[in-house]
Design a protein that fits this description.
Domain HTH crp-type: 144-213
Organism: Aromatoleum petrolei
Domain Cyclic nucleotide-binding: 10-130
Radius of gyration: 19 Å
Strand order of the largest sheet: 1-8-3-6
Keywords: DNA-binding, Transcription, Transcription regulation
Number of helices: 7
Helix content: 25-40%
Protein name: Cyclic nucleotide-binding domain-containing protein
Strand content: 15-25%
Shape: elongated
Structural class: alpha+beta
Length: 217
């Protein structure tokens, strides 16, 4: 488990003895597909590290409209704000498939940091990197139009295969809408025109980006 934690971005730079202590204190948790791991407003007691499976962090308004904040897979972590304050959870997290997680409780984590105060700087640097990424996402939601946000999402998910780019597994249009903060109807209209224009091919299990997407829609 120590070797696994060493690969987690948040813990990068911690000494081997500290990683071993974290591994000893971490509690394994298993959640089936569809299980809610966290709810907005829950008491925050620590962070989770993903070993297997995938999860979705999201917010939902009173009308049931969902905004997907992030998707987490193996090596990712979430709930890290619980390390810094006692405020309740700020987002909900649901398992998209069976997941194996490690829960690192706040007291155990700070007990490890107390053995080497210099490691606090490592933690803060890694958390700042995470916050900057979240700031970029908020900026995109606030300042870019729906096409710009969809463009950014596809580029972030696509993997090069020859002269094409592949998004796999294929997202439904509702999933895309949740990720970019738009209606499914608007996403459907944009995707349909990109398909007609020869930019995208929607295959059963993946989205193929055949050529660079236009700068504007």
């Amino acid at each position: 488990m120590t070797a696994y934690l060493e690969q987690v971005e948040l813990f990068a730079g911690l000494a081997p003895a500290q990683l071993e202590a974290l591994a000893r204190s971490a509690q394994p948790r298993v959640f089936p597909r569809g299980a809610v791991v966290l709810n907005v407003g829950d008491e925050a007691r620590g962070l989770f590290v993903v070993q297997t499976g995938s999860l979705k962090a999201y917010l939902m308004d009173e009308n049931g409209r969902e905004l997907t904040l992030s998707i987490h897979g193996p090596g990712d972590y979430f709930g890290e704000l619980a390390l810094l304050d006692d405020a309740p959870r700020s987002a909900s997290v649901i398992a998209l498939e069976r997941c194996e997680l490690l829960h690192v409780a706040r007291p155990a984590f700070f007990a490890v940091l107390d053995t080497n105060p210099d490691s606090i700087h490592v933690l803060l640097r890694n958390l700042v990197r995470r916050i900057r990424a979240l700031t970029d996402n908020v900026q995109a939601l606030a300042l870019e139009d729906v096409f710009g946000r969809l463009h950014r999402l596809l580029e972030s998910l696509a993997v090069a295969q020859g002269e094409q780019w592949i998004v796999e597994p294929r997202l439904t249009q509702q999933e895309i809408a949740n990720r970019v903060g738009a209606s499914r109807e608007m996403v459907n209209r944009i995707v349909r025109e990109l398909v007609i224009g020869g930019y995208l091919v929607l295959e059963p299990q993946r989205i193929v980006i055949r050529r660079r997407l236009p700068a504007r829609w």
